[in-house]
Every structure is written in structure tokens, then in C-alpha cells.
Write a structure and sequence with these properties.
single chain, globular
Length: 333
């Protein structure tokens, strides 16, 4: 009897171990599926936010320009820390919106898209329509300033401006990413948003640090003895300013492409119309390419039109508020 009981107990233990192994295998498969889902959603969200990330990269690289060479990396690090604080605020806020007011995601997406388009048009108007103020020959000479204090103030101003810019662009990216995973389970939303936040911070500011040091690397290589090193240094010195200009142009184009795409997708008739145009031009061996070009061109057009309308409305509001806010000057004062 004791032997039979022992065999029964061993059999039960073996069955229990088999059940545990099976449940572990099932849990592992489920975990793998969840991990695959998170990876897929992170990839999709990264693709959708790539345009804004490119603009974030271009704008932050421009913010660092003009800072002393030995202070460029410390400034980038300070902005990266400020960006981390921004993400620590924005990610929980986005998750709270998803949990308690999910209907707000679509309006926030549309608002973010309109703001992107507005920024793009504002940059273009400032670039091409802004006339510099003419120099006044009778103006007194500028006051003598402490160069060190002036450079320190410039550095602090650049850091504040870059962190403020990062907050706006990060909010747009987080909202776009949230719209991508809005229907996913809450845990997956957390994983994707945290992953996007880490990718944004490390990727953008790692690249910014590398870009602002391209000219220094070029100078260092130009002073080397080898001909190849000097040639590479000269190439980097010639490439660095062109890269900054390209990033600025690409960032502006990305504003219209991403913002216009968000707005077009949020208006069903417009979205279907753009897709119909894309399908109509999809012919021949390069049909897929023509479709992508047509859809993106129409998204850019939508972005430019909406951005111009928003800019016009903002300028009208500014003009309307200016007389009320100005104080009339009485004679003799």
C-alpha cells in the first residue's frame, strides 16, 4: 500500500510538472505574441512619427548652433535631460487621456496636425517674406557687454528654447503614437509609449550631438598626417553646413507631410478622395511609386492650405488684440 501510494504521488507530481511545463509554454507563447505586438506597434508608431522626429532633430541641431564649441555637448546633454523631464510628464498624461477620456485622442491628433502645419507655414513666411529691419545710421552704437556673460546668457536661452520646442514636438509625437495604439490593451500602450519616448530621446539627441561635432571631427582629421584623413576631414567640413540646411528643409517638409496626413486621415471624405487619386495613378511597373508620390503630395498640399488658414486666423487675432492692448500716449508724455 505504501509503495502504491508513493507511485500515485509520483504520478501526480509528474502530471503536475507536465501541467506546469504546458502552462509555462503557453505563457511563453503569449508573452512572445505580446512582445511581437508591442514591437510591431512601436515600429508603426515610429514610422508615423518619423517626420516629426526629423523636425525635432533639425530644430534642436539649429538651437545648438552658435554655442561655443567646447560647450556644445554639455548644452546637448542639458537639453536631453530637459527632454526626459518632458517625456516623464507627457507619457503619463497621454495614458490618462487614453484611460479616462479616449474620445479626446482624435481631436488632439487633429489639433497637433493643424499646429504642425501652422508651424511649417510660419517658418516659410518668416524665411521668404520677412524683411530685416533697415539699419538706422543715426542710432547710437551698441553698448559694450561682457562677452563671457553674454555667451552664458545665450547658452541658457538656447537650452530653454530647445526644451520648450522639444515639449511641443514631443507632445505631438506622443499623441500620434497614442493614436496608433489607442485600441491596444493598456499594458501594451504603456510599453509602446515608453519605448517611443526612449527612442526619441536617445536617438534624437545622440544624432544632434554627432551632427554638431561633425565640423570638429573634420578639423581634427584635416590636421592629421595621412592624405586620406585630410580628405575625409575636408569632406566633413564641407558636409556639415549642407547637412544642417538639408535637415532644416526636410524638417519643414515633414511638418506638412505629417500634419497634412493626420488632418486628411481625420476627415473621411478627404482621406477617401486622396486614396482614390493614389489608386488612379497606380499603373505600370512604377505604379506603387506613383501612388506614394501622389498621396504624399496631396497630404503636403492639405497641410500647406490648413497651415495658411491657421496662420491667417492667428494674424487676424493678433491684429484684433493689438489696439486693445496698446496704451495711447498723451501729448507731452
Amino acid at each position: 500500500m505504501a509503495g502504491a501510494s508513493l507511485l500515485t504521488l509520483l504520478d501526480d507530481i509528474a502530471t503536475l510538472l507536465d501541467d506546469i511545463a504546458l502552462m509555462t509554454k503557453v505563457a511563453a507563447k503569449k508573452s512572445a505574441v505580446v512582445a511581437d505586438d508591442v514591437a510591431t506597434m512601436t515600429k508603426v508608431a515610429t514610422q508615423k512619427t518619423a517626420g516629426v522626429l526629423g523636425d525635432d532633430l533639425a530644430l534642436n541641431a539649429q538651437q545648438v548652433s552658435g554655442v561655443r564649441a567646447e560647450r556644445e555637448i554639455p548644452v546637448v546633454w542639458a537639453v536631453a535631460k530637459g527632454s526626459s523631464v518632458n517625456k516623464a510628464i507627457l507619457v503619463p498624461a497621454a495614458l490618462a487621456v487614453s484611460a479616462f477620456v479616449p474620445w479626446l485622442i482624435a481631436p488632439l491628433l487633429m489639433l497637433g496636425g493643424a499646429f504642425l502645419c501652422f508651424e511649417g507655414v510660419e517658418k516659410l513666411t518668416h524665411r521668404f517674406l520677412h524683411d530685416p529691419a533697415p539699419a538706422d545710421p543715426g542710432a547710437p552704437p551698441p553698448p559694450v557687454v561682457d562677452l563671457a556673460a553674454d555667451l552664458a546668457a545665450l547658452e541658457k536661452s538656447r537650452i530653454r528654447g530647445a526644451v520648450r520646442t522639444d515639449f511641443i514636438l514631443s507632445a505631438e509625437i506622443i499623441v500620434i503614437a497614442l493614436g496608433t495604439v489607442a485600441s491596444a490593451p493598456w499594458a501594451q500602450q504603456v510599453a509602446v509609449l515608453v519605448g517611443i519616448a526612449i527612442i526619441m530621446t536617445v536617438g534624437v539627441y545622440g544624432l544632434v550631438g554627432a551632427i554638431v561635432k561633425l565640423d570638429d571631427l573634420g578639423l581634427w582629421l584635416s590636421a592629421r598626417a595621412g592624405r586620406s584623413a585630410r580628405a575625409l576631414g575636408a569632406l566633413l567640413l564641407a558636409t556639415a553646413p549642407r547637412l544642417m540646411r538639408f535637415l532644416s528643409v526636410a524638417g519643414t517638409a515633414a511638418m506638412f507631410l505629417v500634419g497634412g496626413g493626420i488632418l486628411a486621415h481625420g476627415v473621411a471624405p478627404l482621406h477617401h478622395g486622396i486614396e482614390a487619386v493614389g489608386a488612379a495613378v497606380q499603373y505600370g511597373p512604377l505604379g506603387g511609386l506613383w501612388r506614394v508620390l501622389a498621396v504624399n503630395a496631396l497630404n503636403v498640399l492639405v497641410g500647406m492650405i490648413v497651415g495658411a488658414l491657421v496662420l491667417g486666423a492667428v494674424m487676424a487675432l493678433r491684429r484684433g488684440r493689438a489696439p486693445a492692448s496698446s496704451t495711447p500716449v498723451r501729448p507731452g508724455h
